Amino acid sequence: MLIFKLKRMAELLYNEWDLGKRLSGAKGKTCAYIYLFEILSETEKLVLKKENNKIVGFAGYSKWNSKKRIITKKFYGLMAKILINSPLVKNKQAIYDYNNEYDNIPSDLNNYFDGELSILIVDKNYRGKGYGKALLNKIFSLAKTDNMKNMQILTDESCNFKFYDAMGCKKIRETSVSKKVSEKGEEKYIYEKVLEEGEENEV
């Protein structure tokens, strides 16, 4: 992926979420790049939304046990590890703690889903235009074409999680985020999207 695209995508993530920056003492946008590389290390397909040639949102999905793009995924995974272990991150364990807290799911759901919504984000200045809905519908369509039957969506109170209710997703679990990584002690949610026909929008 071109560097200017990576920079813009990291900027969107940085402006939206903490991603462990407070706890890890990481410099600048380091945590945003770590998260971006982790997303790319598991994402099967990524969809970008542009306005006036500027990336204003993107979404992607992962498919469990996929054999596609293995080398590319390993490269991005390596880049994430290099950043975590670099001098740019003061408390490296805090990054792992943050990731484990938000990515952790109950053991009884380990083999329940075919994959996951790896990312969905729209620039705050471009919301209300239907971009999030179009991106998500495109991801649902691509995942269905990829023979996925259902998809896991992990979200929390820092996101507009009710958006997923409106998109035909079903909340199946609700737990609390440890105050170790969230000062507010947020609630986190696991949604399921059963993939069906006719869910593609233009992006």
TrEMBL record:
Residues 1-196 form the N-acetyltransferase domain. Signal peptide: none annotated. It holds the Pfam family Acetyltransf_1. One of its GO terms (molecular function) is acyltransferase activity, transferring groups other than amino-acyl groups. InterPro entries: Acyl_CoA_acyltransferase (IPR016181), GNAT_dom (IPR000182). This is GNAT family N-acetyltransferase. It comes from Candidatus Aphodocola excrementigallinarum. The lineage of its organism: Bacteria, Bacillati, Bacillota, Bacilli, Candidatus Aphodocola.
